[in-house]
Amino acid sequence: MLQFTYVPLSIKTGSVLKLLTIFICSLAASYTLQSQSLVTGFTARQANDGVYLTFTLVMGNTCLDTEILRSPDGVDFETVGIISGICGSVTENVSYDFTDEKPLLNRDNYYQIFLRGLGYSEIIKIRYYNYSDENIIALFDYQNNSCIIAINKTNVKNGTANLLSTNGNVIRSLPVSGNVFSFDISSLSNQIYLLEVIADNKRYLKKLPIFN
Known about the structure:
single chain, 52% strand, four-stranded antiparallel β-sheet, 15 strands, mainly beta
């Protein structure tokens, strides 16, 4: 007559969790390496007609159709464009470009490339500023008590930004380099201010209504 002996498992719960963690990290690392090996030079910059994207498909990789994906948060993506046809080459790197003509205005835009049959690229981020007919735009981040200022100019060197009261008194002054900067508004009282930016022998003015 056959007899069965019960042998309890000696694997502890902590060991199982450790093994699962190692497995998940390995999958993530594998995905990252795959993304990096497919696409290189993935960049985004603001252009007059939208966000201009460039990327290069590494030689040895080919696919059918390339989708341009965009997201407001880096999680939920939607297709904003398709480069149709066979992409890539077995023998050489192939570069592509695409312009997103309707980016999300005055907020972050996350982009990713989906190569059908191959996989996904890394995710990159750019904030698109909609100047319209203005030289300066202001974006308030009340949660972090800051105001982000963007100047409609490629690059500002050795500029100065002055926060003025409505009667012209200088409340705060700070140096400006580049076309985007921010300042803390936590100590400012609720009222309308004037922002004066002086750069490259030009003077820009904008009203700033601050209500914390």
